[in-house]
Amino acid sequence: MVGDAKLLFPLDEQPAHGLVRGAAIRGPAIQSFLAVRKRSEELAEGLSAEDCMVQSMPDASPIKWHLAHTSWFFETFVLAQAGADFRTFDPAYRMLFNSYYNGVGEMHPRSLRGVLSRPGLDEVRRYRAHIDQAIVALLERPCPPEWLALIELGINHEEQHQELILTDLKHHLWCNPLHPVYRAARPVAAHPAMDMQFCEYEGGKTRIGHAGDSFGFDNEQPAHTVWLQPFALGKRLVNNRDYLAFIEDGGYRQPEYWLSEGWERRRSENWQAPLYWQAPESAGQGWRIFTLSGDQPLRLDEPVCHLSYYEADAYARWCGARLPTEAEWEHAAQQAGTAREVFGGFMESGDFHPVPPPVTGAQPSQMFGEVWQWTASAYLPYPGFRTAAGAVGEYNGKFMINQMVLRGASCATPREHFRASYRNFFPPATRWQFAGLRLARDVLG
Amino acid sequence: MVGDAKLLFPLDEQPAHGLVRGAAIRGPAIQSFLAVRKRSEELAEGLSAEDCMVQSMPDASPIKWHLAHTSWFFETFVLAQAGADFRTFDPAYRMLFNSYYNGVGEMHPRSLRGVLSRPGLDEVRRYRAHIDQAIVALLERPCPPEWLALIELGINHEEQHQELILTDLKHHLWCNPLHPVYRAARPVAAHPAMDMQFCEYEGGKTRIGHAGDSFGFDNEQPAHTVWLQPFALGKRLVNNRDYLAFIEDGGYRQPEYWLSEGWERRRSENWQAPLYWQAPESAGQGWRIFTLSGDQPLRLDEPVCHLSYYEADAYARWCGARLPTEAEWEHAAQQAGTAREVFGGFMESGDFHPVPPPVTGAQPSQMFGEVWQWTASAYLPYPGFRTAAGAVGEYNGKFMINQMVLRGASCATPREHFRASYRNFFPPATRWQFAGLRLARDVLG
Amino acid sequence: MVGDAKLLFPLDEQPAHGLVRGAAIRGPAIQSFLAVRKRSEELAEGLSAEDCMVQSMPDASPIKWHLAHTSWFFETFVLAQAGADFRTFDPAYRMLFNSYYNGVGEMHPRSLRGVLSRPGLDEVRRYRAHIDQAIVALLERPCPPEWLALIELGINHEEQHQELILTDLKHHLWCNPLHPVYRAARPVAAHPAMDMQFCEYEGGKTRIGHAGDSFGFDNEQPAHTVWLQPFALGKRLVNNRDYLAFIEDGGYRQPEYWLSEGWERRRSENWQAPLYWQAPESAGQGWRIFTLSGDQPLRLDEPVCHLSYYEADAYARWCGARLPTEAEWEHAAQQAGTAREVFGGFMESGDFHPVPPPVTGAQPSQMFGEVWQWTASAYLPYPGFRTAAGAVGEYNGKFMINQMVLRGASCATPREHFRASYRNFFPPATRWQFAGLRLARDVLG
Amino acid sequence: MVGDAKLLFPLDEQPAHGLVRGAAIRGPAIQSFLAVRKRSEELAEGLSAEDCMVQSMPDASPIKWHLAHTSWFFETFVLAQAGADFRTFDPAYRMLFNSYYNGVGEMHPRSLRGVLSRPGLDEVRRYRAHIDQAIVALLERPCPPEWLALIELGINHEEQHQELILTDLKHHLWCNPLHPVYRAARPVAAHPAMDMQFCEYEGGKTRIGHAGDSFGFDNEQPAHTVWLQPFALGKRLVNNRDYLAFIEDGGYRQPEYWLSEGWERRRSENWQAPLYWQAPESAGQGWRIFTLSGDQPLRLDEPVCHLSYYEADAYARWCGARLPTEAEWEHAAQQAGTAREVFGGFMESGDFHPVPPPVTGAQPSQMFGEVWQWTASAYLPYPGFRTAAGAVGEYNGKFMINQMVLRGASCATPREHFRASYRNFFPPATRWQFAGLRLARDVLG
């Protein structure tokens, strides 16, 4: 619950040494705030104002909209409530950049975000500067803990939108037949392929969910006890080679591996491979894949990505395994601790695409930072879940239906924005996210 | 799991005394089979051939189709595999009455079941007799356990379709502006209204799911351990009086109580009250409700019914409570045991509509036999869940997405067709089933 | 125009010899009325009550609905206005069987006509008898001309629904995979194929539209002058052999022959041939076609049928011709007069399917009575067109948009229900009507 | 017909004095070409690159797309065929900026034109310069007449897109809740309101369609004889005052004035007034209207605009009149000749909005240059219509279905781009064009 979350920035003493948040280190509040704000703008570097206003489908938003909406969030939930000396940049923005908060009032229709040529990108940048200045001014004075908590929420909110900037941009560039390059491809170290191996876990009583001093979203809370049956978890992510075997075995032609709704979706949208895959144009040629570095040959050793839940689930069934539950996944992630192989490259690597795993040791590799991993768990409230009072309570809770939980973090997730208890969620047909899978299976006790 | 289920009818010895199935007593196999088959036909009594062929929406099916499809089930999964001496009634039926089994082959489109004027109702009755005769002939000889298991599955399958016959018929009659009566209304004993009270449960480790000698569907298995937080469960179902207060408080006009998708659905379909409710036409008049006995005044003390998950969930949020999880519900049902108040009227009561509860004692009343109760649990596989091999494995498993579990049993459920572990499931927007709710809340430990 | 139409039954003197209506002879009013009413019921002979209540798509209606609605028409526009002594059969029918007359009030939704199992077919027959009796009683007394005019309109209305009974039934039986037979096929005389020849017409000033003593719909009126360029009209209808050449030449694969909207429709509905055609299952086999006599081999010499306007137009373009305008067609039909070859079999032939043409002489053959012929004319009001006052004015006029005119009459049209000025009309994507084409081309003056 | 059209630029002699085209004067070919090209870019002045890439609905296109596509037209139909020395600017553009010419090959989906952030606006301007240079180079040498004809077609094509630039931009700005201003409003001279009066025409034989030396589209040809009944035509356009009376009389609440499809559309899209009208927010306030100069008070004397055919037709029926046919309109326009009152302001006025009429004399006022006028005629081929060979033949002909003809020209039409025979066409539900109406009525002969 937002209101109760332990604060990143305690009231009296803003630490010079930073605070632990997830597994990462944060600096003092102002620096943290400004760093996140700056990174959003850096993501837009090299893009034109035109690039920043495309909306390629209702699920995706223009980059300019992301830049404005994250500012709107600070304005609406912090500045507008923090006192009389805040001057609104433009009163029309309250409606224009409201995403889905009924408690705030009217909102511009989601599917029409791409028509907002006004305000222009430059104007939105001025809006951002205006908000930055006001938040910094607020933080320079003694600041009540509830505002600090909301600022921290705003920072985490902006990090989520940084990932969306990348996934939405990728979809937009894909819709352009020119398949433009966003960032040049970086060389990737070749690793020998590892056979699929599993780690076993005993099960029994364990505790999941977020607790403690660091930031967590309301939907990760409260921490609570669950009971697990013994299970095993794949030591590495399923990769393109694995998945290609499924395709070549007729996985997209046989309903027996698929959930009924998944098969219907596959048929109606004519899925033949993951999103962004391009079939060989003629014998002898190989598969290609569209990335944020343009069209590339498909690397067989890298984690498969841009799967819907339906595809991930069908693949797992085809190979006699299943998807892990979110509790299993979190339990394993707690065990994995901070071993080096556990972490991938995150957004900061600059790859913007998953890379092959390192040679792994005892722990599952790439739990975080390459692809989100579909779990077999529906996105539902934890026992004792409460939303915050007011409009900010609409943040997560009202979406708890018809969505599946993904765990981990992807190559588009900011490095500071992950933890074992983190719950990402999307409808099962979603394919434009960096989502892949890790296998699980039962262990007979 | 179907193939492993303990048999209703052991191979060598068909008992004269019957076998416990759920809380009910069954006779020997042939009698059980014939009794179920007869009841389906009794449900169609008083209806014309025209009545029996209406399909009022794609989700519902004509009664004639239910009568044929339940026979097809025995033919396809038992008779067609049981030996050379079975003569097919009509080879076209294999496709015509296949509901959704890809493993069996092609199927007539679901939304076009209402165009099948041929075969006529009389022909379908001959088909039923043909199948009945063949199954009885099979049962009169020594019968391998896997066939017995499939016959038992067929009986349970037919019981499920008996409930659907009633819910589909109700929707069909509602679509006819004449609002015809199916069965005359029976007098209902008036009970003084009871305030809402809760039973508390300690939580901790418990076991849910189906195990033991009796029949259970694959989706209830295997039994397994779960961990519950302390909780409380409403002693009675939410009734029309309760729900009317929600309506009158603006529950259908304020998004804050609703899941986001639920609110969208409410808007797009203009829900203002539960399905089948008719608002007062003028001041001074009361609400009315359409039932299988035609239009009736709304009885305030009877359980509210024909709610979607979205409405049940919004109501619970509005009154500061929540829906129970399926594990909580099952745990409570195990405790409730066989106390008299626990059971409602089921289909056999002839009410075809929920009735007000008896004065209750220590246990939650009407856990079974009045309305299905939406739970907060998504319909997903239990740990260790396996489907049967072959097409019959499509029975339940492939629907485990985007559906919510309902527990209990309704006034349209056959009395023998219930148990504490039973998992019913529907998409959250479903309203034409006899579905209501029971409140739950957290108990701080 | 309805109100002004010359009466079939003059007030004072009801003729023993009948009146010319179109090219046909009618008996006195009561006989005419009863004959038409009886024929509707004869069309339902051999069909079960179940057969009579199927609605296979929103555009089509159940036979039972046609039987009731045609009675409703007499009740609503004649009996309800003709005096106090008429007793309504059931007040609910006013809404239940209203097709589209806003001026009459509410109507049961068109797409839900198939849910009306009540009233049953027997009840609808009693309704028909009730109406028959009342109309006969009315006609037995002196009857003001405006009522006579409305009764005549009702007779013509019922004849239109007789054709719809057949086209709707055909679609319904086609949707049933059993492809039931309505009437046994009759032997067809084989005629040697005739090459396509054209009749030439000089053009200039001519007069089209309905005038004179006989009945005509408002949309055929008033008669008026038009100017035609010289043109030529095909002496016979395009037949299956002709059309197959178009298919085999890739007509359904090349957009260049198609209107843009037609091509989109072809793609989205995957048209590969006319409706009801079944492609050869293997080499060596021939095309088959579904008819009201079940599946039959495709007869190459019979007129092609069940085309949309888009297909008819594409075919004409492919062979370097065009569709005639309705004025050209009517001008030619006026010239053709009563030559024997001009007329086909109509509904009364009992073929319920178009037959090959006779050896033709000077006039275009089969102008009437085999297939409706798409024209290049949009369905729009004639100069001076007026609708009748009141709800009956909604009969034709409000549909004058986005529809194309068809001329002639089909094998499902009652023999008395045609004339050179008759305007049938359907949206250009319509395929379930008995619609084919006749070619036209320009003649350079 | 394109190929046969009389040339604007005869081969040997390019006139210094210009050529009559419509009622306007054109300079020599190069100047004409460059003037049109320049005007397109002037329309984009004051707009940002972001403004130029919005697509607010599938029917509308981004301005950048219009700028590129008009260049593509010259490239594809002239330069690519005119010789070996033409260097393609970017081969990808052949597909990217193909609107709908199947004969040219694949095309980028219409509904996704707004995702093309690349090429950017600057790049498209370079593309335009590249094409301009190549066409000028072509025109500087002796040029075969068929190329000249195609260049002239390209000029007219670009003029059509100039109007679309304005209508699409208007819709886009309207979708932005900020309602930005494109060009400042100009003062409008107030004229006293004139009562509706009619000019009468005798009818009889007349000739319509394009003929002669000047340019005309294929769909206006060939000129041909038609026969008209006597009729009368409104001396002025229907204005906002007239139309408001229809609204206030319940015109949008009563189906009796509407075509059946029109009423359905009105209901499903909840039309309550013309597009861009804003109802008074409270009593005492007046209606407002969105224009290319932002929100403005509704001026009662200006022609009503942004009507669908359905609304224009309903209005005419409500006031006991009708829409004119296109032949009636053209006949009247021929009579009106060059009287001053006949012409409005066109695009060149800079109003970008219709203005009240001058005091009129004998002729109908504002036949051209204020609003397009819906006619009662479907858009169909004239007798003897032929399309050009090749892909350019797809220009007009393949759209001749389900559209209605509009006559005249609007305040967004370039002044040189009109003539009495000009046929504009849109589907009847279209509202974003500058379309209004002029009444007609029958005159009893």
TrEMBL record, chains A, B, C, D:
Q: Provide the Sulfatase-modifying factor enzyme-like domain boundaries.
A: 200-441
DinB-like domain residues are 34-165
> By its UniProt entry, which Pfam families does this protein fall under?
DinB_2, FGE-sulfatase
List the coiled-coil residues: none
What the entry lists under Gene3D superfamilies is as follows: paralog of FGE (formylglycine-generating enzyme)
Q: Does the keyword Iron apply?
A: yes
- For this UniProt record, give its keywords in alphabetical order, as a comma-separated list: Iron, Oxidoreductase
List the InterPro entries hit by this protein, alphabetically: CTDL_fold, DinB-like, DinB/YfiT-like, EgtB, Sulfatase_Mod_Factor_Kinase, SUMF_dom, SUMF_sf
Q: Which PANTHER family match?
A: HERCYNINE OXYGENASE, SULFATASE MODIFYING FACTOR 1, 2
Query: Mind telling me what this protein is named?
Result: Ergothioneine biosynthesis protein EgtB
